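Researcher: We're reviewing a set of sequences before deciding which ones to prioritize for further study. For each one, I'd like a predicted 3D structure that I can look through quickly. This is AAHS family 4-hydroxybenzoate transporter-like MFS transporter. If possible, include the structure in token form so it fits the rest of the review sheet.
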Amino acid sequence: MAFATQAVDIPQLIDDNRIGRFQLLIFVLVGLTVVMDGFDVQAMGFVAPAIIKEWGVSKAELGPVFGAGLFGMLLGSLSLSVLADRIGRRPVLIGASVFFAACMLATTWASSIVQLELIRFITGLGLGAIMPNAMALVGEYSPRRKRVTLMMLVSCGFTVGAVLGGLLSAALIPAYGWRSVFYIGTALPLLMALLMWRYVPESLQFMVLKQRRLDRVAGLLRRIDPGFVADAGTRYQVAGPAARGAPVGELFRQGRATVTLLLWLLNFMNLLNLYFLSNWLPTIAASAGLSTQTAVLVGTVLQLGGVLGTVLMGPVIDRIGFYRMLLPSFALAVFSIAMIGQPGLSLPLLFLVVMVTGFCIVGGQPAINALAATYYPTTLRSTGIGWSLGVGRIGSIIGPVLGGELIRRNWSHSQLFLAVAVPAAISTLVLLCMAWLARQEQGRGGEAAPLQGGGPAPAGGLE
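Model: Here's the predicted structure for AAHS family 4-hydroxybenzoate transporter-like MFS transporter, in token form for your review sheet.
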């Protein structure tokens, strides 16, 4: 229990208490918002066959529609994450949920490819704000001992949303048409926005650093520690500097430039891999002679491996650190990806190497998001995650396009997957560089030590 006349270290108070119902409710509601993010991003893929049939358009004509959504998400990640570090995570999360709910409704009114492309681009702007702010808010209400696990579990909601979207679409489209998917996609985010407005508070660290709504801080701390008492003389402390200048520029100051660029490169390479595999793996499997049903199952196993990776990596990272987990995972991915394209691979072995690839690549992305969240201080956290993801989304656009071009050039399956193993190898080298930098900073008592994961948080980590 904190004494009223003492300075209260908010991160330490969170660390010293068990995770209670108040925090669990925040995690669940924010996680459900990420679920809706995944549902919406994948919605176009699920309704595409019905639109092609109803409008009489070709598959190729829908390509720009998918690209427009991803490009919108890229811009949303870059711009709205910066806004969140100025006005708060809560208003941006709620506003983005209402915004993309309205865009989902507008999608039902589209009657041409051009209209659909414009609406999906605008929708992407709102969707790009969800993941960076969800990760930041969950991290700032989590005790350090469980922080990475909780952030990765919430991030896993994106994949859960994609799976649920597929199940709902399969049930709704035959009975009610493709627009019914977007009606559901309108109602649920609005419901989530209302629940967040009622039950999800702003980050405590953010309020203290920005000196906003300090009258609410004591009440929120009592919901974490019922024995906490404060009076007019109580001061609150968080580890981290106050914001100076433009948030994006701050990512390159105070020794953060190298790690920032490495995080951007890591996100770029992994999302290039992830989106190539997600988009092309079933098609390549079918062209190799597998039945359509088996080819779809191969793609599903990739995502299943990703869910397993997300669930299992988090607790391990909390115990042994990011690099001891991610370095062997990405090194293994180099070999598992290359194995996918080898001729004469038996079906059980194909499923095994695809699942391992999903574990390492799809499951590794939430860990990369958590790595960024752990590195940046409160005033830069949303900006840091958002710009890492935003730059990474360039890779998510290039990956499928590059795959299509290589397939058009008649590359063999073996050549294709050897090429796709290269970004995983680059990711491994980037992680080696980051691990070396973190070790050097830790030896000097610097601020990059939190990148090791686990243990007490030095200044500059997630406060």
